[in-house]
Amino acid sequence: MGPYADFLAALKAEGFEGDLSDERSERQVLATDNSIYQVLPDIVVFPRSVQDLQRIGRLLADPRFEDVVLRPRGGGTGTNGQSLGHGVVVEFSRHLTGILEINVAERWARVQPGVIKDRLNEVLRPHGLFFAPELSTSNRATIGGMISTDACGQGSCLYGKTSNHVLELKAVLVGGEVLDTKPRTAREIATLKGREGDILRILERVARDNAGLIAERFPKLNRSLTGYDLAHLRDADGRIDPRAVLCGSEGTLAMLAEARINLVPIPKASQQINVFYDDFQAALRDARVMAGLGAAAVETVDSRVLSLAQADPVWEYVSPFFPDTEAKGVNLVEFTGDDEASVEAQIQAALTRLREPAEGRRSHTLARGGDVARITEMRKKAVGLLGRTAGKRRPMPFVEDCAVPPENLEPFIREFRAVLDEEGLQYGMFGHVDAGVLHVRPALDLIDPAEEPLVRRVTERVEALARKYGGLLWGEHGKGVRSEFVPKVFGPLYPALEEIKRAFDPGDQLNPGKIASARGAALLKIDEVPLRGAADRQIPEAQRAQYEGAVSCNGNGACFNHAHHEVMCPSYKATNDRRNSPKGRSALVREWLRQGGPEGRADPGFEREVKDALDECLSCKACARACPVQVDVPRFRAKFMESWYARNPRPARDHLLGCLEKLLPFASAFPRLANLALKGPFSPLLKSLGLTHVPALPKALGRGDLAAAGLKPLNLAAPPRPDRAVVIVPDAFTRYFEPHLVLDLAFVIRALGFEPYLLPFRPNGKPLHVLGRLKAFERQARRTGASLQKLSNDGFTLVGIEPAMTLAYRDEYRDVIPAGIPVLLPQQWLATQTEALAACAGNKARERLTLMLHCTERTLHPGGKGEWVSIFETLGQGISVPNAGCCGMAGTWGHETRNADTSARIFDLSWKRHVDEAGGAILATGFSCRCQSSLLAKAEALHPLQRIRHLMRASNAKVGTGFA
User: The pTM is what?
Assistant: First the structure.
C-alpha cells in the first residue's frame, strides 16, 4: 500500500464518518475545475463534521504521513486551478452543507463551508436579508470557496468582497486544533497556549515589523490583494485579525470548518438602464460617467457575449431590452434602493445625463424589477456562453480577472486588446467596469500543442501591463497556478508570507505550490501544470468529433446548480454526486476515450464506473439547453451505450424496452391478456426483468370512437387537401396507454374548424436512441421520417401529443435528417388559432388550474409555457404554471426498478410540493409525469387537452363542430 492508501485506512480506523474513495471515476471528476488545467488527485475524502476535519488534521501531523498533501475543494468553480493537484482532495460540498443558525435581529448567519450561496439566500429571502458578495457562479459556488478565494463580482463597489462580510471563522489546523479567528490584542495573544498562540504571535510580529512596507506596497484598489492580506492584519482597533490571512488563502493555511457571516437587507426596488455604444472602448470610457451617477453596479458586455446569448433560453425574456443589434458594447447600469421613488429619482437623473451627447453612445433601454434579474442572469452566464464559440479555438480563462484603478481601465484594455490582436487571437469581454475589472478570455485551441506557448506569452505581457497601470493580474478569481507571480508582486514582503505559511503549515502539506511555501520550495508555474488540452489531444480526432459534447465541456459548472425549480440535471440534484452531473459525465467519457474505450482498451473497472454514472442519466435533455455550452449528455450517452453493448450482453429489460413501440399495438389489441403480464398474476415476470409500476392498457380505440370524434385515418395513398387538415402524429404512449387524448385533440381540432386525421402509427425510435441502439434508431428514423417529411413538404400541419417523443423529431432526428421534422406540440399549433379559440370561449366560472410541464418540453421548447398560458386565457381560464424541475420518471427510466429510489427523490425535490399545493385540478403535459404524480402523490393529473376540450364543450360550441 502507498501513503495515500495508508492514509485512507488510517482515517477509517480513526472513525471517519464521511465518505472515502480511491475510485478512478471519483478522482477523475475532481481533476478539473473551471480552468485550463487537469491534475488527477490520489484519493478523495468527503467529511461530514468538524470532527472529521480534525481527524484529517491529526493524521497530517503524524510522521507516517508527512509526505501526504491536501487540496481543499468547494464548488470547483475556480478558474486558476486553486483546488487542483495530486494528493488528497477534501471535498466540502457533499456533506458540510448545513445552515446552522440565522440571527435576523443582528443580521448574521452561521454556516458550514459547503453551503451554496444561492441556497443560503433562498433561505434568507423570507427574512428580507441576503449574503451580498455577488458572483456569476452563485448557484454552485460554496461559501467556503468564496472565503478561500475572497470572491466578489457585480456590485462590489457597493457591497465589497467576501472578506468584508466574514465576521468569524473556525478553521482546523494541521494537528487537529481548531482556530477561532476572533481579533485579539497583543496582551491577549501573549497568554494564549498551543498552536493558536504560536500562530497569532507570529501574525502580531509580522504586522509590527512590516508596517511601513505594508503601507507602501499594497495597491489602493477595490479588489486589493486577496489572501495573506497583510494590509488588514490589524483591525480598526489595532487588534490582530486572523481572518485577514485566511480569507483568500485558497486552502493553503487551514481547513475551514464554519463561518459566521454578515447579512444585509435586500433592496426593495431595482431599475436598470442598458446603454448601447458604437465600440467597446467607448463603453469603457462612458462607464466612469455612469458610475458617477450613484449606480449600485455598472457592468459591461461586448457584442460577442450578446450574440451568443441569443441561443440561450434566457434570451426569450431579455431580448426586448437589447434591440440594437449593431452595438459593439453595452453598459448595464443598475440602481437599487429601499423604495421605488428614490430609485426613480436616480433613474431620471441618469436619463437626463444620457441626453447629453457623448462619443460613441447610441441608445438606451430601461428595465425594472424582475426584468433586471433576468438581464443579470444573462450577464452571469457570460463565462459559459463564451464557451459556445464556434471553431476549435475556444475562450480560455488564464488572464481574465486583471484589476486596475477604474480610471485606468479604458487605456489598460486598449493595450490589452492590442496584445491579443498582435497574437491573432479572438476574445470575449465582460465585467465590472465600476471596480476596474474586466474579464477577457482569449480564444485558444489547447489541444494543439503549438498553441500552449501562448499561455505564457500572453500572461507575461498582460501581467506587466496590469502593473504598468497600477493593478494586478488577479483581481477576483484568486491566484492558484498563477502563484509564480506572487513573489514579484509582494517583493520584500514575500518572506512575511512564507513565515505565515510556516506558522500554519510547517510541512507544506496544505495545497502546496500556491501563494507561499513554508520550506522555500518553488511555486507552481502556469505552463508546468498539466493542461486539460494535453489529455484531450490523446483522443483521436474522429472520436473527439463523435463525442463533441463531452469534449466541448469547458468546466464552468453550471450543471452543479442545486435550484430545485430549474430543470438542470435532476440526477445530480438527487444524488449530490458530481459523477452524475453533465460536467462529471463529460470528464469521465473524455478519460474513457483517452484510454481507448471505443476499441475496448479502457480499464475495465473504470469503464464500469463510467457506465454506472451514465446509467443514472434520465436523458431528459436539460443539459442540452440549460448548459451554457449546451453539453448534450443523452447524445454522447447513447454513443457510449452503443459501444458498451457491442462488447457486453444487454439485459433482457433493454430488449423489451427497445421493442416496446412495436409490441404495444399488438398488446393493445388484446388488453386483458396483456394486463395479466402488466398488472395481473404474471406481473412478477415483468419485475424479474427489472421493471416496475408499468400502467395497465385500456380498451383500444374502435372505429366508433374515431367516428364519434370525427377523426379519419389518413390514407397515405390518397391524402386529403392539406389546407384545412391537421394530421395527428401518434406516439406509442398516448396512442395505446391514453388513447382518449387522441380523441380529445381531434375534438379540439374540429372545434376550431379543421379536419383531424390520424396518421397510421409508426414507431418514433426514441427508446432505441436512449438505449444506445443507434443503428436501429437510424433505420427507424429514416422510415418514419420519410413519410413525415413528405407530408410536411406537401403542406400538412403535423401535431404530436407527448412532448419527449414529439420533440425527438426536431432533436434526435437531426442526426439522420439534418433539418429534423416539423412536428408541432399541441400548444404550438393552438397558439396560431387565437381567433378561433376566442370564439370557443365560454362564460364558465374560473377554476384553479395548475399546469406542470414536461422537463424536456421546458428545455427544448422554452416558449411552451407562454403558449399554454395564452391558450387558457383566450378560453377565459387562468392557469398557474410553476417552474419545476423533473418529475423523476423520464419516459421508462423511472419504471426501471434500479432507478426507483432516485426517481422518488427527484419527484420530492420540486414536483411534490407543487402537486400537494395545487388546490385544484392538476394538468401535466407528459405521460411519464402523469404516471409519476399518480404513483407518488396519488394525484390524478390530466393532459391540458382534456381541460381545453371541457372548456369548449361548456362554451356551447360557438363554432359548429359536432360536439355532443
Answer: 0.92
